[in-house]
Amino acid sequence: MQVVSTGLPYLIVPVAQGLDRARIAVTDFGERLASVGAKFVYVFDLDKREGRSWNNTGAVEDVATGSAAGPAAICQGRFVGRPSVIAVTPDGRGDLWVGGPVAPVATAP
Questions:
Q1: Which residues pair with 78 in a beta bridge?
Q2: How far does the chain reach from its first CA to its final CA, in angstroms?
Q3: What number of CA atoms fall less than 13 Å from residue 31's CA on the CB side?
């Protein structure tokens, strides 16, 4: 495990198996993260190139955490029925563009 920052400090937790069973199971998770200098957790399976992240109570799972998954170009959201793919594309200047396909969920009046 390691704390890294891609704009937000994440505790990165690599797993070899069991990503489908990953959960936040303690009530003081935010404080535990703060004690190591992190604000959020990102659990990922490197072999499958898939990851998961939640709010710090574990109540809401993010389906596409661009700040964590983007730099790794990883899939996310399958376990909550909203699979996503985050792609990383370099441009000609050495910058990276992070994004993926989107689905409209609302329109402006």
A1: none
A2: 46
A3: 3
Both tokens of 26, joined, read 């303690």
| 101 residue type, one letter | P
Let me know: does 11 contact 36? Beta carbons within 8 Å.
yes
Any idea where the domains of the chain sit in the sequence?
2-99
pTM of the predicted structure, to 2 decimals: 0.77
What's 55's DSSP letter? Answer: -
d(CA 7, CA 65): 12
Strand partners, 97: 89
Question: Where are the strands (E) in 15-95, listed by range?
Answer: 40-45, 50-54, 61-62, 75-76, 84-85, 87-90
- The hierarchical CATH code for the domain 2-99 is 3.10.310.10
Residues 6+ apart with CB under 8 A from 92: none
pLDDT one-digit tens code per residue, 73-99: 688 889 999 888 887 788 889 887 777
